[in-house]
């Protein structure tokens, strides 16, 4: 019988208990420990880069965002709160946020180019209405996510924003894989209902 599972090179006991090695390193980084930062970088860079690349697709932009993420980790490690979550999750959240920001910036630039082109050829364009619709949809999603029970929200956030697989989530939160699958299925169903989406 397996005694441990390996997730991204980290041994995780089957009972789901796991030391937060990244969290321990983050606390040392907050004190200015460069060796801890190098160790943290080596431990997580492949995982962080993979998440960013999935969002951005473009390799060179992903490399730039990876640098920005670890610069932010170095500068803001003191804001990491071990009682609120694991270090790896905190860093992956920063990475996802940075990648999404880069997508939004690229999209805004493309939108400006389209509006300039439409203005040049005289086709009316209602960007205010489009922005309002996007803002409302975003607020609905945040509100719907906030209405979920904590266990369902945690599973969905780890999967969709943290980039974790269901098996990894199971090990991280210490719940059986079947329970994680149920939480995610029920959470997604509830999100659809909250947002009024019909299948």
UniProtKB/TrEMBL annotation:
Identify the CDD domains for this entry: Sigma70_r4 (cd06171)
Which terms in the Gene Ontology molecular function aspect does this entry carry? Answer: DNA binding; sigma factor activity
Q: Which residues form the RNA polymerase sigma-70 region domain?
A: 40-107
Gene3D superfamilies per the record? 1.10.1740.10, Winged helix-like DNA-binding domain superfamily/Winged helix DNA-binding domain (1.10.10.10)
**Per its UniProt record, what InterPro entries does this chain match?**
RNA_pol_sigma-70-like (IPR039425), RNA_pol_sigma-70_dom (IPR014284), RNA_pol_sigma70_ECF_CS (IPR000838), RNA_pol_sigma70_r2 (IPR007627), RNA_pol_sigma70_r4_t2 (IPR013249), RNA_pol_sigma_r2 (IPR013325), RNA_pol_sigma_r3/r4-like (IPR013324), WH-like_DNA-bd_sf (IPR036388)
Record flagged with keyword Transcription = yes
Q: Which UniProt keywords apply?
A: DNA-binding, Sigma factor, Transcription, Transcription regulation
Q: Give all residue intervals belonging to the RNA polymerase sigma factor 70 region 4 type domain.
A: 142-191
What superkingdom does the record give? Bacteria
Tell me the GO BP annotations in alphabetical order: DNA-templated transcription initiation; response to stress
Q: Which Pfam families does the entry mention? A: Sigma70_r2, Sigma70_r4_2
Say which family it is in. Answer: Belongs to the sigma-70 factor family. ECF subfamily.
This chain belongs to the protein called RNA polymerase sigma factor
Name the gene for this chain: sigK
